[in-house]
Design a protein that fits this description.
This protein is about 35% helix and about 20% strand. The chain is α+β, with helices and mostly antiparallel strands.
């Protein structure tokens, strides 16, 4: 998330909203966002219902949810999905920005 924070202005310049979906309940999620001054929209998803819709996996042996990045256009069509195999398998913000620019 730190990498995303560094490029928040570039996402805004490309008319892109970043939505962080997390497994915490609403109170914990809000406390985390406020405590870390996260400049994005957040959505608590303690029942894992939202990202299950987009195919995110939960692997208990790897400490929970695997990372997922999904680009959804303004009409609601998924244009790109990356599903990580571990917590280090996350595309760089520059890769996501290039994809956004190509749409």
């Amino acid at each position: 998330m730190a990498q995303l924070r560094q490029t928040v202005d570039e996402f805004k310049e490309n008319d892109t909203e970043v939505l962080i979906v997390g497994p915490e309940n609403a109170a914990k999620f809000q406390a985390y966002f406020e405590g870390h001054n996260i400049p994005f929209q957040g959505l608590p998803d303690p029942k894992h219902s939202v990202l299950k819709l987009y195919g995110q996996q939960i692997k208990l042996f790897k400490l929970g949810r695997m990372p997922a990045q999904v680009l959804i256009d303004k009409t609601g069509i998924v244009r790109f999905g990356h599903y990580g195999h571990d917590m280090t398998d996350i595309p760089a913000p520059s890769e996501l920005l290039e994809l956004i620019k190509s749409l």
